[in-house]
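Long-time lurker. I teach an intro course on protein structure, and each term I like to show students one example going from raw sequence to a predicted 3D structure in token notation. This year I'd like something fresh instead of my usual example. Would anyone be willing to generate the tokens for the chain below so I can use it in lecture? Attribution to the forum is fine with me.
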Amino acid sequence: MTVSVILHDAAGASDAEFVFIREAVALLREAVQAPGFGGSVRQAEYSSASWRGRHGAVRELDGSGVWDRIQQGRESGHCGDHALNLSIEIADLPSDTGGPGVIGATRIGTLPICSARWFLNRCMIVDDPVNYAAHLMHQWMHVSGFVHRKDEAGKDAPSVVSRLVRRTLEPAHGERIDAQLTALVMLSVERCDCCEAEHPGIAQHVEAA
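-- Reply from a regular --
Happy to contribute to a lecture. Here you go:
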């Protein structure tokens, strides 16, 4: 069955920001429905695909297990409805002025996704909804229950699936992908400390210094 992506709300977004977010959501839907996306997720190389249930137990999934949660649209603690449900809060998270900036912060297994206003605005300035779509995928993986291990290579499940969204969209939308934003979102080992958790249960997507 085809997986969908549903934007329920975007609290704190201006009218212009909401229009841009809606376009990014449409691109995310295009990516996850693309032929071969599921195969790419199943066959990808993961340093970890750690998933934490509502009761705190962490277990490792393989690529098929990762795709199963995406395809079924399984947010943590909920039955799958074959849809990635997105509730977004545009928040004034620390920017990259004078140090690492926080791109997103999501409590593991829960909505809403907190997305940094400074990052959204930067995507809008260069008209890059592709990298914003990849960011939303990364954060939804946390809503589904995926967590980060100590992983400087950026090969855990949220990071890998985020990159696969970008790569899937690149052939049709490559002219809109900004290289500097890609460096922030795609988390190469040279560029970023992957999603440090400063508070229990909070996964923060942190930009490189």
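Some talking points for your students: The first strand starts at residue 4 and ends at 11. Confidence is low (pLDDT under 50) at residues 187-202.
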